Amino acid sequence: MQLLLGHGYCPVLTIPIVDEKGFAINSENDDIVVQIANSLDIDTVVQLIEAPGFLDDPDDDSSLVTRMSVSELQQREASVEGRIKRKLLALSRLCDKGKTRVIIADGRIEQPIISALDGAGTHIS
Hints:
Helices cover 36% and strands 18% of the residues. By secondary structure, it is of the alpha/beta class. Helix 2 (30-40) runs parallel beside helix 4 and helix 3 (70-79) runs antiparallel to helix 4.
């Protein structure tokens, strides 16, 4: 990782696991991202998901929350259920020390990371 960073590369991580038929699938990698970000002192983490960002209503893309404070993130984590609860808990741990900015953005679009860094998605700081 340090070799890539030292040469100006932006690492993109996905943590695959193998299903019962031997096919690689993505795992819940939020906890791993927290460990890597903390150990490398990362200042920005972009989480790509299958939505425009954090939505107040999961069925309504127009309910996108564009900005969120760390305290609001922690309040929302306490009130949601399912997979998003685990994601928000991990993101809360990323932001706990106040040095990591987190962006939740749409991974289905062209150039999702550039779009997120340019302001798309939900920015948490």
